[in-house]
Each structure stands twice: as structure tokens, then as C-alpha cells.
Amino acid sequence: MFEEIFEVLAGRWGLAALLLFAMPGGRKVARCASKSVIKTGLMATDRIKEMVAEAKEEAGDLMAEVQAERKEQSKHSHA
User: Fold this and answer.
1) Are 29 and 23 in contact (CB under 8 A)?
2) Spatial distance between the Cα atoms of 3 and 9, rounded to a whole number of angstroms
3) In terms of Cα–Cα distance, which of 24, 20, 23 is closest to 12?
4) Which of 17, 25, 67, 74 is the most buried (most CB within 10 A)?
């Protein structure tokens, strides 16, 4: 697995990185691109957290609703 990762990094991506850093201003371009990727990742992470929180809240609401219905049914069946 690590060998495959190393081959990819040393292959196309390594060559691209080398060419990028060899260009005038290449490091600045790489830094800006890296920041953009990180920002996008953070935004995606925040959105996923929001979605999970919403799903958790919905599941909690459904659970409470079902429990209330069961309790109500239990009252009627014992009466």
C-alpha cells in the first residue's frame, strides 16, 4: 500500500510538484492552491457536521414520537 502511494507521489504528482516549484512564483501558487483545498475541506467538514446534527435531532424526535405512541397504545389496551 505504501509502495503504491510512494509510486504515485514519485510519479506524476511528484513530477508536477517539482515543475511547479521550479517555476518562478511556483511556491506561492502551490501555497494558494493548498489553502484553497484546505478551506474546501473545512467547509465540507462543517456541512457534514451540520447534516449529522440534523439527522440526529430528527432521529431523536422520531424516537420520542414512537415512544409516546406506544405509551398511548399501552394505556388503551390496559383500560
Assistant:
1) yes
2) 10
3) 20
4) 17
Residue closest to 13 by CA, chosen among 5, 3, 1:
5
Q: How far apart are CA 64 and CA 62, in angstroms?
A: 5
- Segments in 1-79 forming alpha helices (H): 2-8, 14-22, 26-78
Tens of pLDDT, residue by residue over 33-57, are 889 999 999 999 999 999 999 999 9
Query: Cα-Cα-Cα-Cα dihedral of 38, 40, 45, 49, to 10°?
Result: 150
* Residue 4 grid cell: 503504491
Verdict on whether the full-model pTM lies above 0.85: no
What is the extent of the structural domain holding 30? 2-78
DSSP class of residue 1 equals -
Q: Report which of 57, 37, 60 is spatially closest to residue 49, judged by C-alpha positions.
A: 57
Q: Which three cell numbers stand for residue 30?
A: 502551490
